[in-house]
Structure formats: structure tokens, C-alpha cells
Hints:
This protein is mainly alpha-helical. Helix content is 56%, strand content 0%.
Amino acid sequence: SSSSLKRPSPPPPRDAQPSARRLGIRAAMKSVAVAFFAVVSSLATSGIDAAMLRAQARQEPDTACGKGFDNLVKGSQDYYRTAAVELFTHPSHTMDNATFEAEFECWFASMCTTKCGGLASQADARKATLTEMCQSVEADWLKIWKLFSPEEVKWFKNSYPSDEVEGSEEGSEVHYKQAMETAKEVNKKELLCMTLFTIDDECVKWPYIRLSK
């Protein structure tokens, strides 16, 4: 009779017996997740390393300014203060010693630190002419430049920290320490005068600039 017939057992749930194919897919997905986590961890570590390198670079001393103006002895700092007053005499440049104070202090500190490259004082031969031209509102920078010896020209070009960056296009030059280049171009006469006075005052042995009487 119909009552004696047994109903077939229901099939097991589909997820109860996952196929080998589905197991393979799950394993592959797990591998991808592990690999992704490893990449993210690596990038995070690289980011930390890069941040540490940047922080270290910021902490490295700027040797372009020698040992730094603030680390000069007081007598040398006093010399610079008097020179910054005596050499900025042109009416349109009298405030530039404040505008470009950091750049002039940097160059002065560099000269003092390196003892002006060992250049000898030429005070006996040119101090009178140098004083007159540097305090004249009519003499331009070129007249001061002509007072440089060949050795001083070479030293200045190699030592002043504003080298043009390699690869910059003509007409749009970029310089290392662009502010130093700007200070040189705007106050070229004053910069050259300070350079020669510093050399002639033996880089420097007095607490004030020595002008010709």
C-alpha cells in the first residue's frame, strides 16, 4: 500500500558538503588576503622608514653656512654688525641688510668657518680704494669685482652657496639656496664689498670693520 512506501531522505544542505572546487576557491581567496595584508604592511613600514629619513634629513646641519652665524664668537658677530651698517650706504639698499640678513649672515659665517679659503689679506694694497668705492653711491658692483684677485674670483665662485641646479632650463634657472642667489643679485655690490673686507681684515681678527681713514 501507499502507506508502506518510504519517503526518500532529503538531500543534504548544499553547504554541508562543499565541493573540492569551492574549497579551492576559498583557499585561493585566503591566499590573496594574506598576500594583500603583507603588501599593506610592507607599504606601511616603507612609509615609516621614509618619514624617518625625512626627519633625519631635516636634522642634518646646513654646512653651506659653515658652523652657522649663531655659533661664531661674539667678536666675529660684532664685526658683521658694523659691516652691515657701513656697507649698505646706497639709499635704495639701506634696509636690505635687514631684508637679507639671514643670507648675509650665512655667507659671513661660511667665510669665517673656512678662514676665507686661506686667502691672504690685501689690505695694504687696496683698503683705501675699497673703502671709497664701497661707501660711494656712484660706484657699481663691477668696480668692486675688478678688485678681486684671480684666486679670490675662483674661491668666491666655488664657495658662495648658490650653484645652479643641474638640468634647469635656460631662462628659468633654479639655484641651490635660491634665497642666497637672490641676495647676491639684488645686493651684489654690498656682498662683494663684505667679502673683500672680510678677507682683508684677516677673516676676521677685529670686532669691527676696519675702514680706511
